[in-house]
Design brief:
By secondary structure, this protein is an alpha/beta fold. The protein is 35% helix and 15% strand.
């Protein structure tokens, strides 16, 4: 861990591994999701906006991946950055299409001279054998670049998973991690803190569970209630407690302390679009949230891995396909 942050940040990882800071350029490649097209459901996950979690993706209007990347690069003109970026396939389920279509999209991004690698947000139930073969093919074709897969787990608790309409059991997640690990594709897992009905201990159980798997990174996401979602309707009709900043920071510090020090932290709060965010509004001041987190962790001598207990990987998680 670096001297300025008490956890293993993505910034630190990139500077150590690629010798420069790598910002993400969010892309919307026109995908849908089995939770929206009727395969599993038509409503999407309960918290998911009309943008499919890609509300910050470059405005597309039919633009190619290369065009989106070039327009995304313009957004960083005033920032002190490195020379390369991460192409982030963010909106909806980014492996949910015919393999030839996926090959064209991923190859276009990986071929861009300013892209160091790609990160693909998807579901573990949308990683069939043809997709895995494609990922392995591209990994070998572009050895100087990286391919990351981001999986939306959110929680290990089945009751909560049913409530948010995740649409797959834990066994599917475990199988996906095993298969990706077998072909040397790093996995980043998304977890949401503050889901209705979950207790502090339930959040911690999710972290302990993930410590048992060979995952590369994690995104710890504060639950955002966005307008136009079923979660917003649920908040209005039924109601549930939304985490206050002090509560969230306390939870977050303990999750970080429980987390294996080898896992790279890619996110600690998340960004809710101003025009969509209903709650919690304090999260709009992301800089203050992170500065307060760092200050309190230093004061309380909290750091990533402080409470980590090393367990063996889940039995059978590492195997050949």
């Amino acid at each position: 861990m670096s001297n300025d942050k008490p956890y293993y940040s993505l910034d630190e990882y990139c500077k150590k591994t690629y010798h420069e800071k790598l910002y993400k350029i969010s892309l919307d490649a026109g995908f849908t999701c089995p939770n929206r097209d009727g395969t599993l459901d038509t409503r999407g996950c309960i918290f998911c906006s009309a943008g499919g979690s890609g509300d910050f993706a470059t405005k597309t209007a039919g633009k190619t991946v290369s065009k989106q990347i070039d327009e995304g690069l313009l957004l960083f003109r005033g920032k002190k950055t490195g020379n390369r970026f991460i192409a982030y396939f963010q909106a909806f389920t980014n492996t949910y299409a015919p393999v030839e279509h996926l090959r064209a999209l991923y190859t276009e991004a990986l071929s861009h001279d300013r892209i160091a690698g790609i990160s693909i947000a998807t579901r573990p139930d949308c990683l069939g054998e043809p997709v895995l073969q494609l990922l392995n093919e591209l990994r070998l074709l572009f050895p100087e670049k990286f391919i990351w897969i981001e999986l939306g787990l959110q929680t290990i608790h089945e009751k909560t998973a049913d409530f948010i309409r995740r649409g797959y059991p834990l066994s599917v997640f475990e199988d996906a991690v095993a298969r990706l690990h077998a072909i040397h594709i790093p996995v980043i897992v998304h977890v949401i803190l503050g889901l209705p009905g979950e207790t502090e201990e339930m959040f911690y159980e999710t972290i302990r569970y993930l410590n048992r798997f060979p995952i590369f990174g994690i995104k710890l996401q504060l639950l955002h209630v966005l307008s136009g979602t079923d979660l917003a309707d649920y908040m209005t009709s039924v109601g549930f407690p939304v985490l206050m900043q002090e509560e969230y920071l306390s939870l977050l510090m303990n999750c970080i302390a429980l987390l294996s020090p080898d896992i790279v932290i890619h996110r600690l709060t998340g960004d809710g679009p101003k025009d969509l965010l209903l709650a919690p509004l304090w999260s709009l001041n992301k800089r203050n949230v992170l500065n307060t987190l760092h200050k309190e962790m230093k004061e309380k001598n909290m750091y990533q891995g402080k409470y980590y207990r090393k367990d063996a990987y889940v039995s059978g998680i590492i195997h050949s396909i």
